[in-house]
Amino acid sequence: MDEEDRYTRITLRIPKELHTSLSEAAEKTSKSLNAEIIGRLSDSFSFKHEADESAAERVEAIGRRVERSAKEAHLAVLIMGLQSQLRDCEHRRTRQLEIVKAISDAVMKAEEDDPVKCRALESELSAEGKWLSEINMEYARLVAELSNLQQTWSELVGVGAH
Q1: How far apart are CA 20 and CA 17, in angstroms?
Q2: What are phi and psi for residue 92, nearest 5 degrees?
Q3: Is 140 part of any domain?
Q4: Measuring CA to CA, which residue among 90, 86, 67 is closest to residue 160?
Q5: Residue 7 dihedral angles phi and psi, to the nearest 5°
Q6: Looking at the domain assignment, is residue 4 inside a domain?
Q7: Distance (Å, rounded) from C-alpha 150 to C-alpha 80?
Q8: What string of pLDDT tens digits covers the 162 residues of the chain?
Q9: Residue among 140, 131, 148, 128 nearest 85 (CA)
Q10: Whether the Cβ atoms of residue 82 and residue 149 lie closer than 8 Å to each other
Q11: Which InterPro entries does its entry note (predicted)?
């Protein structure tokens, strides 16, 4: 390919102040005015491409931060809900322990005085004991679930910090 075929000749009209600035810049870098103009034009296209990539990267990074924040918020709501359920379960558990203790004390008293009442109380104690076992299983499930969510939270926040 002939050197002349690589270039297109154009006539360009530009403001005198711009011409002066370009000429001075060309002189400082020991370039021709033509080389200075071509270099600046080429750089402007390169810069635009880099700016487009940079903007796309920023948008992608913002998207990742928004997604992580949404996950954090969702986990925080789940954790607060489980903490509330756990407090309720603790209250039910405490109340049920009081009931079982009161019935147990009544059984001990009734053993000597009233065997029929004692058997009825033992039956009631058995039913309340089963209910207490169910509450304890629910409590253990909530504690495990809360622990898992808190671990997920730590991993998510730990990833976000890096």
Answers
A1: 5
A2: -65, -40
A3: yes
A4: 67
A5: -120, 150
A6: no
A7: 11
A8: 566 678 888 888 999 999 999 899 889 988 888 888 888 887 777 666 666 677 788 888 889 889 988 998 999 999 999 999 999 999 999 999 999 999 999 999 888 888 899 999 999 999 999 999 999 999 999 999 999 999 998 888 775 444
A9: 140
A10: yes
A11: Arc_rbn_hlx_hlx, Ribbon_hlx_hlx, Uncharacterised_HicB
Q: Give the number of domains in the chain.
A: 1
Instruction: Assess if residue 148 is contained within a domain.
Output: yes
Range of the domain at 56: 14-161
Is the pTM higher than 0.85? The answer reads no
Mutual angle of helices 33-113 and 16-28, in 10-degree steps: 90
CA–CA separation, 154 vs 161, rounded Å?
A: 10
Nearest-angstrom CA–CA distance, 40 and 35: 9
Q: Is residue 3 part of a domain?
A: no
CA-to-CA separations, 1 to 4, 5, 8, in angstroms, rounded: 8, 7, 14
Structure-token pair, residue 52: 């487009």
In one letter, which amino acid is 157?
Answer: V
What is the model's pLDDT at position 50? 66
- Contact between residue 152 and residue 75 where contact means Cβ atoms under 8 Å apart: yes
